[in-house]
Amino acid sequence: MNADLQRAVQWYPGHMVRAMRKMAEYVKLVDLVIEVIDARAPRSDANPMLDAMIGSRARLTILNRDDLADPQITAAWLDDFKRRERMVIAVEGRQQQSVGRILQAVKTVANARTGMTRAIIVGLPNSGKSSIINGLLKRAAAKTEDRAGVTRQLQWFRLSPTIELMDSPGILVPKIETPESQWKLAMIGAVPRERYDPEEVSARFHAWLLEASNGRTNVPDLESFARSRGFVRRGGEVDYHNAAQSYVRAFNEGAFGRLSLERP
Ligand SMILES: Nc1nc2c(ncn2[C@@H]2O[C@H](COP(=O)(O)OP(=O)(O)OP(=O)(O)O)[C@@H](O)[C@H]2O)c(=O)[nH]1
Ligand SMILES: [Mg+2]
Is 150 in the pocket of ligand 1 (CB under 6 A)? Predict the structure, then answer.
């Protein structure tokens, strides 16, 4: 899979290159940068290039998909961010009420001269940026979908007379640092589906889970998942490829329970 994911990264789509450049420009113009990260992998899903771009600008981190992450581990991440004096909130991006909690934090960051808050929402592909915009606007204004690379352009949304939010396309970092991060990003949906081998990703995930839980996990491996879900061809041969796609989907639908892949 390394080769596949390496290719994923060399395949660095034009819209992401343009978006990265534009994002760097817009980050300079706004009062607040809101970074949306998947709560299940806050290390791998963060953009390391953001620190340099943001400089001293106000920054709010959103740990999204709280519903899928292990609550104890998310609590530990929240403490960790706060210890580093970072504004942070964990939310469930599809729930208006949950997303509404972001508003208070946004309101605390107003431009002293204009009284306005202009914020840009950034993050890796599929982290839930557009869902969060919709939750704040209370309507489906931004397009969302269960795959990486849905939003293609930067777009402003007016939330109130004093608050404007900019949605941005998810951007993969040009080079995913470690093999660990590679399978994790694929598993949480940040890497476009056609860019990784789901069999290898699910195998690595399960091997990691066995080790992390000292062998005490109820999450099936690909083989037993495939058999229990009927991914078996005539003659009894297991259809690993389709089973693996379904396995990754099951993980993201919460079928394996609330599971975090990284601890602080
Ligand atoms: N389970 C769960 N799903 C979520 C949550 N937030 C968003 N989603 C789903 O995740 C998928 C991606 O959401 P988007 O809002 O399109 O993500 P995005 O960051 O805008 O993606 P790009 O524009 O491709 O970068 C959608 O299917 C959402 O319904 C959440 O908190 N929990
Ligand atoms: Mg989007």
Answer: yes
